[in-house]
Amino acid sequence: MNNKIVIALGGNAIQTDDGSAEAQRNAIRETMQTLKPLFKTDTDIVISHGNGPQIGNMLIQQSVADSEQTPAMPLDVCGSMTQGMIGFWLETEINRILTEIKSERRAGTIITRVEVDPEDPRMSTPTKPIGPFYDKAEVEALQKANPDSVYKEDSGRGYRKVVPSPLPVSILEHKLISDLVEDKNIIIACGGGGIPVVKQHNTYEGVEAVIDKDFASEKLAQLIDADTLMILTNVENVYVHFNEPDQQKLTDVDVATLKDYIDQGTFKEGSMLPKIEAAIDFLESGNGQRVIITNLTNAYEALEGKVGTQIKR
């Protein structure tokens, strides 16, 4: 069993067709029960998570309620709100399990800021759609009010605002997270990829951007000297030529082989490619020993090396 692991939960661990608090809490309860065997070990654990559906709903709520009495909050604030909300649900269920198994460990959430480089080329090329859909007339009115905003047509469903998705430079709370984890606390951090911030004078200020959750999780795993990064998604294994006649399941694979597949254009942008790139970055960073990509159901068996895609140097 590993000494220290960062587990990156995909949106399917929380997402449900029913956006109510009760439905999402029930989904999280089932997810944490799946991870229960891991909580019985001595492994140091950090859990990160996505927030796509939650922040999307929150941005819709903000736009509907926007008025002088209830002004809409900016994207960085909405990100922190979803971190707190999902973190609260996660730590509630984890602490419930820890009590059931008579463990003295406890879980807690760290609202996490992730430093990005304002000169990152990705900052000038918005690509990440967020929030509600608009028709053309609504977009023209929105852009008149805020000329710097960018909107793009999304799959024939209308227009959505798009924001940059820069790469993480550092996790500002990584030392705090490391200390808490080494005291055997289970820590929830980097929710939704963290809150993107840039350094300004003697502090950091939030920016309108979204950080990929897997890249943020990988950066955190580097900074806290984790042995293993586990990326939980909706498939049991990584595949090459996915859904094609020559589809091939990857079980044990090394970095050099994955780089060859990337050069061949095997993995799709916005799907498996970021996870593979995060895996490579982690293993080439120094202390990283293993990356596991699998689904939630197989998480514990994958940690034991029995299933899933196991990536090593």
Automatic annotation (TrEMBL):
Superkingdom: Bacteria
Pathway: Metabolic intermediate metabolism; carbamoyl phosphate degradation; CO(2) and NH(3) from carbamoyl phosphate: step 1/1
Stretch forming the signal peptide: none
Pfam family, one: AA_kinase
Catalytic activity: hydrogencarbonate + NH4(+) + ATP = carbamoyl phosphate + ADP + H2O + H(+)
GO molecular function per UniProt: kinase activity
Record key words, sorted: Arginine metabolism, Kinase, Transferase
Aspartate/glutamate/uridylate kinase domain segment(s): 3-295
InterPro entries per UniProt: AceGlu_kinase-like_sf, Asp/Glu/Uridylate_kinase, Carb_kinase
Family, similarity comment: Belongs to the carbamate kinase family.
Protein name as catalogued: Carbamate kinase
Originating species: Staphylococcus auricularis
Lineage per the UniProt record: Bacteria, Bacillati, Bacillota, Bacilli, Bacillales
Gene designation: arcC
